[in-house]
Amino acid sequence: SGDARQLEAQARGDRMRLRIAASQYETRQRAALAEERRLRTRISSLSAVLDSKERRLELTRELADSMEAGARTGSVNRVEATRLALEVATLAEEVQVARAELSDAQGDLERLSEDAEAREIEYEDTRRTLNESIESAEIRLGIIRGDLSDLTEAGLAVVAPCAGSILRLHVSAPGAVVQESDILAEIACAG
User: Fold this and answer.
1) What confidence score (pLDDT) does residue 156 get?
2) Each residue of 168-184: pLDDT tens digit?
3) Are 29 and 116 in contact (CB under 8 A)?
4) 169 forms bridges with which residues in the sheet?
5) In the prediction, which pLDDT does 65 show?
6) Kind of pairing, strands 155-156 and 151-152?
7) In the chain, which residues have pLDDT < 50?
8) How far apart are the C-alpha atoms of 90 and 156, rounded to whole Å?
9) Is the dihedral of CA 147, 150, 156, 160 positive or negative?
10) Which among 83, 88, 142, 177 is most buried, taking Cβ atoms within 10 Å?
11) Cα separation of 113 and 33, whole Å?
């Protein structure tokens, strides 16, 4: 029947959409894992660079403070003390930049985790919806196929739910059209 063909097409389409959704989800998961590895490597590298710059800043600051004290007493050249003060300022800016880059990378990693959770929820919802649609179509197909098993060349053969006597026949004309909830007959079951 046309309904059966339509339901079969719907179920096939839903199965295809389910395979596509699974493939897209797996592809996105692989990409997210690669991005996570990249970000973790970047965070590790930035942490090492930041530690190094902070140590250099601390040592250079100590040296600059010592040179400044020497310049005040006249034992050290003022130009050399000023050069170290400028180097301290430059290193302090580099430390700030490194901290900002590390913070950005950590934020990116956190957002990636949140995005992965959202993708998981979205995929599970899509999967559940499509599986429900497929299951519903298969149930309806089973009903239609079951209904068609009683179909003969003369029409639909309706089997009584029990053996007994017909008390009243509501539909008796050959080729009569009935609705799904119409009463066909009233039966008095034997026994």
Assistant:
1) 64
2) 988 888 777 788 788 88
3) yes
4) 185
5) 93
6) antiparallel
7) none
8) 92
9) negative
10) 88
11) 10
What secondary structure letter does DSSP report for 173? S
pLDDT at residue 191, rounded to an integer: 73
Q: Which pLDDT value is given to residue 141? A: 84
- Return d(Cα 88, Cα 60) in angstroms, integer: 6
Pull the structure tokens for residue 94.
């580099």
DSSP codes of every residue in 47-89:
HHHHHHHHHHHHHHHHHHHHHHHHHHHTSS-HHHHHHHHHHHH
Cβ–Cβ < 8 Å for 154, 140: no
Contacts of 32 (CB under 8 A, 6+ apart): 112, 115, 116, 119
**Distance separating alpha carbons of residues 57 and 104, to the nearest angstrom:** 22
Q: For 54-89, what is each residue's pLDDT tens digit?
A: 999 999 999 999 999 999 998 888 899 999 999 999
Gyration radius from the chain CA atoms: 40
Residue 107, amino acid: G
pLDDT of residue 100: 97
Per-residue CA distances from 45 to 41, 48, 51, 191 (Å): 6, 5, 10, 87
> Which residues have a Cβ under 8 Å from the Cβ of 150 and sit 6 or more positions away?
156, 157, 158, 159
